[in-house]
Specification:
The N and C termini lie far apart (40 Å). A hairpin with a 6-residue loop joins strand 4 and strand 5. 0% of the residues lie in helices and 61% in strands. The chain has 119 residues and is mainly β.
């Protein structure tokens, strides 16, 4: 099992910045891809950014140039630096980890952290 705990959410004015963290614990060996997703009220959960163990990253078009995903494999922690925040970024942000094992592919989620951007 892998446990994921997010932190760093909060209330910020438009144009401001926040840094989210996701700490992984438990059986973390074999985690390949980690990512951030978000879900606004009444909307489906959507991809924000992903990072694989080798460091390659992928971003949603809506956050490119504003958000940066990073990962410290030694600390089993992933980060999301969010700059130039907009009211449209308001959502619950969820950490995701995909673990590959001999027996299959396992998908883990954190409990979420709320980000609210005021105009």
């Amino acid at each position: 099992q892998v446990q994921l705990v997010e932190s760093g959410g909060g209330l910020v004015q438009a144009g401001g910045s926040l840094r989210l963290s996701c700490a992984a614990s438990g059986s973390t060996s074999g985690i390949n891809t980690m990512g951030w997703y978000r879900q606004a009220p009444g909307k489906e959960r959507e991809l924000v950014a992903t990072i694989i163990s080798g460091g390659s990253t992928n971003y949603a078009d809506s956050v490119k140039g504003r958000f940066t995903i990073s990962r410290d494999n030694a600390k089993n922690t992933m980060y999301l630096q969010m700059n130039s925040l907009e009211p449209g970024d308001t959502a619950a942000y969820y950490c995701n980890a995909i673990k590959l094992t001999t027996w299959g592919r396992y998908n883990y989620w954190g409990q979420g952290t709320q980000v609210t951007v005021s105009s």
